[in-house]
């Protein structure tokens, strides 16, 4: 866990730092005596020296906006560590100022795994757009902040236009019967980290009254620290296939009845 989250405390009065243990792993270097004091007197430390130049503005903006009226700010940026690794960092800065203290706390979180997997998934969904237009399949997901991301194919399947608030609700599951909705929720709740749901068939009824059959699968994605990244899902419209099989079964049953009668 040290490599995931750590902290730094800066004392404005003594221009000195207190480093959390995890910082050494995060920056790929042991903290030494020279790193404990800031000769320039304002947050010019060994950690800051690793930040990508093009990302420095984000941190500077956060620092400049912090005040007694706005004591907590945050920023995201990339660093190139001493052992030559590129990492994505989320930092929360908090003023610890009272009669006894004149300090700033920096809570540092390594979000590299989350960021890389998010970027990979973004590229994947971009690639899938061409596939989705060729077949009746919706590839969608629920992000770590609880928001749903839907594609044009989703709306083609459920036969309606985009509406405000769609990101806050499962617009496909909302069309299931109560029984199927309960079954679907249980399958998702029982789904383990990074496991696949497996294919399940559900029937939806669109707002226009059409009944459709969907083959549904899902996967919950977590990073190596156990933090939830997103739930990926797909729903394929297999209505024609299901109805064709139903007609075949009905026809077969009719033939058998005729054969029995004769």
Helix content: 25-40%
Tell me about the largest β-sheet: 5 strands, antiparallel
Task: Count up the helices.
Answer: 6
Which spans have pLDDT < 50 for at least 5 consecutive residues? none
Strand order, biggest sheet?
Answer: 2-1-5-4-3
Cα distance spanning the termini: 76 Å
Strand content: 25-35%
Provide the residue-averaged pLDDT. 81
What Rg do the Cα atoms give?
27 Å
Structural class: alpha+beta
Structural shape: elongated
How do the helices and strands follow one another from N- to C-terminus? EEHHEEEHEEHHEEEH
**Oligomer designation:** single chain
Number of strands: 10
In short:
The chain is of the alpha+beta class.
Care to describe what's here?
By secondary structure, the chain is of the alpha+beta class. 31% of the residues lie in helices and 30% in strands. It has helices spanning 22-27, 56-65, 112-134, 152-158, 178-190, 239-261; strands spanning 5-11, 16-19, 72-80, 86-97, 102-110, 137-143, 148-149, 200-205, 211-222, 228-237. It has a five-stranded antiparallel β-sheet with strand order 2-1-5-4-3, with helices on both faces. A five-stranded antiparallel β-sheet has the order 7-6-10-9-8. It is elongated and about 95 Å long.
